[in-house]
Design brief:
five-stranded antiparallel β-sheet, binds magnesium ion, 14 strands, binds adenosine-5'-diphosphate, Glutathione S-transferase Yfyf (Class Pi), Chain A, domain 2, six-stranded mixed β-sheet, SOS response, alpha/beta, globular, single chain, 386 residues
């Protein structure tokens, strides 16, 4: 519970700042970077519509998207080892962002030291904030060429997709989800200690309560998202029938506490809890076959984009909050026509969008009303006149 109430509290407090200006979408208006990958010192003001980053391979385009993602998640989408992200031979990296949304402004800072593992997060100059506070402020969707694991990777990627939505839609989700993971870990440790079931039962009752709650939220959210996903798929993949199903991780309508008791001896023999919300999946099929068997890479990319756009759109409709879209290597795998479709859907989302490309010609289809182009060259980034 502590986490969520802290988040809400921080959010409320920050939200009561006096108005300085008025913009209708949530946007990162300025970003200062120190020693993040090959970006030694960067200070940029962004458009709250489209921001294009153009430059050669290895110039620093993905690194800039990675720094934005890091500011919103406290982790990278590329490396799990944070020390690799700090610029070679430097003791730390620092990110500082200014966020604007309607009448509010937040100043957020994140620092990571090479020596100590802790991440220091500041919001409006105050210490003691958590990464989840930043994540609440900055809903983001990332689309990268590696992002196809959402479709052809394991269920963990799709659970993370659903849980991202619940984190932003359901204020009590984060605490329930953390509690569930803690109890599962404890249970798995206990299974290896040769306890008999009576010793576990009391934990299992609590675990089952959280499992049912989290699964109900996931199922409802998956269902709510279905319409939005189907709408986008009809536009992006009109020739293919995409079907969607949610699996909660154990047999539908079966009481989870009873199942845990029933499976105890098997779980003990294997050494971990085999069924449960930790096995949930959000499954996609194309023409009733596994998507990765039917769709080309370009079509998989479009489906992945459709999922991420639909999720952003749903957040907008339900919570009146805009996502920030980070799109790495926009042009890869997509023909002219498909680029056009994706560009149009992004324009309609009216969100702040960051797009990387190797040459400006790859961005021809975008043509947004409001945009800023940046030239990225060996770790320096400069705005170009439009
Ligand atoms: N920790 C680091 N310190 C300094 N440079 C790094 C670090 N990690 C990666 N790089 C370099 O940063 C450069 C930029 O990479 P990247 O942002 O992926 O380029 P782009 O997306 O423009 O092709 C690469 O040349 C890479 O070798
Ligand atoms: Mg790149």
């Amino acid at each position: 519970m502590r986490n969520t109430s802290l988040c809400r509290c921080a959010y409320k407090k920050l939200g009561s700042k006096p108005p300085h200006f008025l913009i209708d979408v949530m946007a990162i208006s300025r970003l200062i970077i120190e020693n993040f990958r090959n970006l030694a010192a960067v200070d940029l003001e962004f458009d709250h519509g489209f921001n294009f980053l153009v430059g050669d391979n290895g110039s620093g385009k993905t690194s800039l998207l990675e720094s934005l993602f890091y500011l919103g998640h406290g982790r990278s989408f590329k490396s799990t080892v944070t020390t690799r992200i700090i610029r070679y031979d430097q003791p730390h990296f620092i990110l500082h962002g200014q966020i604007r949304e309607q009448r509010h402004q937040w100043s957020v800072g994140l620092q990571k030291l090479r020596k100590e593992g802790n991440t220091i997060v500041k919001i409006n100059g105050e210490d003691g904030n958590k990464i989840s506070d930043l994540a609440h402020l900055l809903p983001m969707q990332i689309i990268t060429p590696d992002g196809l694991n959402l479709l052809n990777g394991g269920p963990a990627y799709r659970r993370a997709f659903l849980d991202w939505g619940l984190f932003h839609h359901q204020p009590e989700f984060h605490a329930a989800w953390s509690g569930l993971n803690r109890l599962l870990k404890q249970r798995n440790a206990a299974l290896q200690q040769n306890y008999d079931y009576a010793a576990l039962k009391i934990w299992d009752m609590e675990l089952a309560k959280l499992a049912h709650q989290v699964s109900r939220w996931r199922a409802d959210y998956a269902e709510a998202l279905r319409t939005e996903i189907e709408k986008t798929c009809r536009l992006f993949l009109p020739e293919t029938e995409i079907s969607i199903g949610f699996y909660q991780g154990w047999e539908k309508d079966r009481d989870y506490a009873q199942l845990l008791e029933h499976n105890f001896e098997r779980d003990k023999a294997i050494g971990y809890t085999v069924s449960g919300p930790q096995k949930a999946d959000f499954r996609f099929r194309a023409n009733n076959l596994p998507v990765e068997d039917v769709l080309s890479r370009g079509q998989l990319k479009l489906l992945m984009c459709a999922l991420r756009l639909a999720q952003g759109e749903h957040l907008m409709q339900q919570k009146n909050r805009h996502c920030i879209f980070l799109i790495d290597d926009f042009a890869s795998e997509l023909d002219e026509n498909k680029r056009q479709l994706l560009a149009e859907r992004l324009r309609n989302s009216q969100s702040q969008v960051f797009v990387t490309a190797i040459t400006p010609s790859h961005l021809r289809q975008m043509q947004p009303e409001k945009s800023q182009i940046f030239k990225v060259d060996k770790g320096t980034i400069k705005p170009l006149e439009n």
